[in-house]
Amino acid sequence: MKRRLIPLLLLLLLLILSSAGGVNAHRLHIHHQIGAIEIKAYYGGGTPCQDANVTIYGDQGNLYTEGLTDESGEFSFPPKIGMNEYTVVVESTHMVGHRGETTINMSSSGGASGSSGEEMPLYMRIVAGLGYLLALGGAAAAYSGWKMKKKYGGG
Amino acid sequence: MVHISDGILSTPILVSGWAISIVVMAVTIWWCERRRDVVEEIPKLSVMTAAFFIASLIHIPIGPTSVHFILNGLMGVVLGVLAYPAIFIGVVLQAFLFQHGGVTTIGVNTLIMGIPALIAGAIFRIIQIKDLEVFQNQSKRNSEALTGIVAALAGGVGVLFAVVFAAVTLIATGSQFFEIAGALIAAHIPIIIIEAVVTGSIITFLIKVKPELIRIKEEPR
Asked: What is the mean pLDDT of residues A16-34?
């Protein structure tokens, strides 16, 4: 009984191995899908810009698509294959008079993500602004001092 | 809001904004020069402009949007007519450093915030001079409190008028005036109240410690 069972098991193993190898090799499948371009609009201070009108223009300046931002200020649109540049214009409806514009260029190196107007950190801009004003005040004070000195014959 | 961005207003409005702002600036500087030395006022002007420049960064979220401080009423009360050139400098710095408002709209934005500042300054000075005449026999404490209240009124009026002016300017976008004006004023009510309180307290404090900083009566030189 035992002697007959071993060849049978071997045959079975061979069958399994051959069928598995032939029909279902370790094939690697790639499915691809190009996602949407996502934008987020917010006011200075971080409050999301809700229900704002979004207009997207293509590389020829032609209207590509338009819509409204959601409650977190986000909006997404599918890019068109072959078109690399999009101009995004956001116009606030709750605060009429506020408008933002940015250009998304997918062929340049920094195209994956970016923001409009964030080249310099905020504290540096504050320092820069205060610096100009300090210089203005200082210059005026120096001039007044010089005039005073001249008026009173150099003290 | 009171800082209008690029690309919203039509060219004639932008051009007239610049033209009016330049004329008003020239007039205010000439007006001030007739009474006192403008150069001597510039250090004070710089300090106030710094406050104005930074104030726009303080945001208060209100409903679906956010509003920020303007401080144009305080500028008018402290600087008098020089508030206009000071606001111009502040708006220029905000446009270039914070991308707050636009570059083409600097003229219009200065007008929107500057004229209310002049109105606030005038309210403060006119009522104050009347008070001085009427309440000459009043105690010092009463007159200080009164000055604070008048300053608070001027501070609130400054913001209110700025919002109304912004709404008037925005009619040009073709939107409904009353809708815009209503929404803008409603959103700015907290700012109007807070700025009134801030202006009132700052002026009360200044009157106590350095009354010569706020010249009420401007005698010709």
From this structure: 72
Distance (Å, whole) CA A86 – CA A100: 14
pLDDT above 50 (res B37): yes
Residue B120, pLDDT score: 95
Distance, CA of B186 to CA of B184 (rounded, Å):
5
Q: Beta strand pairing status for A85-91 and A99-105?
A: antiparallel
CA A151 to chain B, closest CA, distance in angstroms equals 14
What does residue A54 show for φ and ψ, rounded to 5 degrees? -110, 130
> What is the band of B30 on the pLDDT scale with cuts at 50, 70, 90?
very high
A75: tokens are 């909006």
Tell me which residue of B130, B186, B125, B127 sits closest to B159, measured CA to CA: B186
In 10 A of CB B212, how many CB atoms? 6
Contacts of A139 in chain B (CB under 8 A): 42
What letter does residue B215 receive in the DSSP assignment?
-
Whether chain B has a CB inside 8 Å of the CB on A140: the answer is yes
pLDDT digits (tens, 9 = 90+) for B79-96: 999 999 999 999 999 998
- CB contact under 8 Å between B64 and A94, yes or no, is yes
ipTM reported for the complex, 2 dp? 0.75
Q: Give the pLDDT mean for B128-151.
A: 73
Query: Do the beta carbons of residue A36 and residue A56 sit within 8 Å?
Result: no
* Residues whose CB falls within 8 Å of the CB of residue B106, separated by 6 or more in sequence, listed in order: B18, B21, B88, B91, B92, B95
Say whether residue A37 is in contact with chain B using an 8 A CB cutoff: no
pLDDT mean over A118-125 = 74
